[in-house]
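Note to self: keep these together.
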Amino acid sequence: MGVIRLASALSQPFLGVLADIVGSTRLIALGLAASGFSYFVLDYLPEISFIYALDVVQGTFFAATEMATMLRLMTIVSRKNLSRAMGVYGFAEDVGGMISSPTLNSVYDWAGPSLTLFLLASALVSGVVLSSLLGKQAKAKQRI
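Structure:
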């Protein structure tokens, strides 16, 4: 986790510039997709040095997703409701963390590491697909 946190911290300035260039929505999708695919790869890495390298990649993409999500919220929520939206975002993130750890531990105990990694990766990649579909529906409604 230390490597992931360090990579996340060091990538923040670069990710801020990237968000300005490509936009927060694309950065969210990129971060979720890359994080998901990195979990698919994790089960096949032959030695610990590759896992540390993957941790650097994961830390960067976790940071991209989190920062871009906050930036996106700041652009779609009115100024008077921004604090409320950030509070709900923080609450959802904390609740997700409380639910995901015991759930993944149960799946790990029941089915082992391969299925656990597969389910985690599938959830992240599904988030990208769902976000993309919902985003297209929202844009279509705005045009009407």
